What we know:
Elements: E1 12-18, E2 32-38, H1 46-63, H2 70-76, H3 81-98
Antiparallel strand pairs: 1-2
Amino acid sequence: ERGDGSDGVAPRALVPVSRRRPRTAHPQGNRLSGYLIRLPVGEPDPLARLGAVRGAMDRNKDAGPHRGAGAVALLADHVPPLGHRIGGPLLGQAARLWFDV
């Protein structure tokens, strides 16, 4: 017992995924998105945990990259460089509030 107060807590993970189409004629560089899922750490069976994560990823993929946490990466494509320079450090400081790290 570590006593870290994590009983009943399901941590979240931002799972990166590639949005690049396979076998495209012109490589477009990195095209990334991400899906935010809860990790079923309370499930003792590893196959059931894998099934839960797989189901969550399938639901996120069905919703598409324009919804949820993956939309942040798409939004970043439309922010000018000055916005990245100013907003990046601010968002980095706020990340501890948004994610279970």
